[in-house]
From TrEMBL:
The keyword Cell membrane does not apply. One of its GO terms (molecular function) is diphosphate hydrolysis-driven proton transmembrane transporter activity. It is found in: Endomembrane system. This is H(+)-exporting diphosphatase. Signal peptide: none annotated.
């Protein structure tokens, strides 16, 4: 039980050391060095953390011990756990670098999306969606490999510590994730303050790198959510007393179908919420331009408070239905149907949720950086038809990368946690619908 805590503590120390490489050892002198520097942070923290994991595993664990494995005891050696944590750690790096390739405007995928803007917004959207779907392939193989190896070595505990490994460099991950919004807001302040154009160019370069690092951070979160949810799924199966989860059983298969549908339902709700809030905001802006004298000329100030109220009200009210979907689904599935059906729901939501989350985040990040690529003057001038098409793509991508994609981790993990908590109740009192049908029959 102490082992995960010591690994996490080692991760904090490693990430503090890693920070020195960016601030003191490698000075950044031009904008082209920003993204490589941030990418280097991930690699350095991963290498140092691997050494830290080896140290913790060999000095804090006994050379051999037994763990519970679905009714039997499994003999595990300390080097088994070293490999479990390390495979999760390096799978995270693979996911991060893959996402960086698909969302950075330094590489061909985003450049192709930017080039597609020459023929309009429709082709931009098509290329962006295709990029998002394609970007799922390598992360899924990385997650699958880490699951297989860690389960083979140390059963469900192995998967749990692999998730811990993926999150062991979370301090570095959070730092480079927060980097994007900070740079974006700095650019907004520079523009509103009327600062010279060169400053805005620098903040745009920082923001473009920040979009990529934010996507990398989301990739880490989604990958670890998959591993954590699988570990929780194993705990639920054990606690609910399920011997095997048979996919061919009708009550399990219907759960798989419904579970696989939930991320799409959840994404539809969150995306529509962003759209309706944006619609209200645009209407308010039109009203203010028509009713406040001198606003168009820049001699009068807009009513900021009303715009802020629209955003905050929407952020609170619009999240109630998606939240209810996440909280009520396990309760309904576990109470009306049997524990096996709920197991199917959890498995289905895990499998489809990871794919939808990665593709949504990466499509959004690619559209945003394609717009930045054009604004930097790489293909077409700012204000051209291609730039307008890129802005439309970015507008489509914002709810995907900032709302639907990241929030799907919560759907996956929260349903698993809730099912685990209520597992004994569902095992004893669940299956009401089947019981009623049996009584009637």
């Amino acid at each position: 039980m102490s082992y995960p805590l010591i690994i996490s503590s080692m991760g904090i120390v490693v990430c503090l050391i890693t920070t020195l490489f960016a601030t003191d050892m490698f000075e950044i002198k031009n904008v082209t060095e920003i993204e490589p520097s941030l990418k280097r942070q991930l690699l350095i923290s991963t290498v140092l953390m691997t050494i830290g994991i080896a140290f913790v595993s060999f000095f804090t664990l006994p050379s051999e011990f037994t763990i519970f494995n679905f009714g039997s005891d499994k003999v595990v050696k300390n080097w088994h756990l070293f490999f479990c944590v390390s495979i999760g750690l390096w799978a995270g790096l693979v996911i991060g670098y893959t996402i960086e390739y698909y969302t950075s405007n330094a590489y061909s995928p985003v450049q192709d999306v930017a080039d597609s803007c020459r023929t309009g917004a429709a082709t931009n959207v098509i290329f962006g969606l295709a990029l998002g779907y394609k970007s799922v392939i390598i992360p899924i193989f990385a997650i699958a490999a880490s699951i297989y190896i860690s389960f083979s070595l140390a059963a469900m505990y192995g998967i749990a510590v692999a998730a811990l490994g993926m999150l062991s460099t979370i301090a570095t991950g959070l730092a480079i994730d927060a980097y994007g919004p900070i740079s974006d807001n700095a650019g907004g302040i520079a523009e509103m303050a009327g600062m010279i154009h060169s400053i805005r160019e620098r903040t745009d370069a920082l923001d473009a790198a920040g979009n990529t690092t934010a996507a990398i951070g989301k990739g880490f979160a989604i990958g670890s959510a998959a591993l954590v949810s699988l570990a929780l799924f194993g705990a639920y199966v054990s606690r609910a007393g399920i011997k095997t989860v048979d996919v061919l059983a009708p009550k399990v298969f219907i759960g798989l179908l419904v579970g696989a549908m939930l991320p799409y339902w959840f994404s539809a709700m969150t995306m529509k919420s962003v759209g309706s809030a944006a619609l209200k905001m645009v209407e308010e802006v039109h009203i203010q331009f028509n009713t406040i004298p001198g606003l168009m000329e820049g001699t009068a100030k807009p009513d900021y408070a009303t715009c802020v109220k629209i955003s905050t009200d929407a952020s609170l009210k619009e999240m109630i239905p998606p939240g209810a979907l996440v909280m009520l689904t396990p309760l309904i599935a576990g109470t009306l149907f049997e524990v096996e059906t709920l197991a199917g729901v959890l498995a289905g939501s895990l499998v489809s949720g990871v794919q939808v989350a990665i593709s949504a985040s990466n499509s959004g990040g690619a559209w945003d950086n394609a717009k930045k690529y054009i604004e930097a003057g790489a293909t077409e001038p700012k204000g051209s038809d291609a730039h307008k098409a890129a802005v439309i793509g970015d507008t489509v991508g914002d709810p995907l990368k900032d709302t639907s994609g990241p929030s799907l981790n919560i759907l996956i993990k929260l349903m698993a946690v809730e099912s685990l908590v209520f597992a004994p109740f569902f095992a004893t009192h669940g299956g009401l619908l089947f019981k009623l049908l049996l009584i009637k029959h």
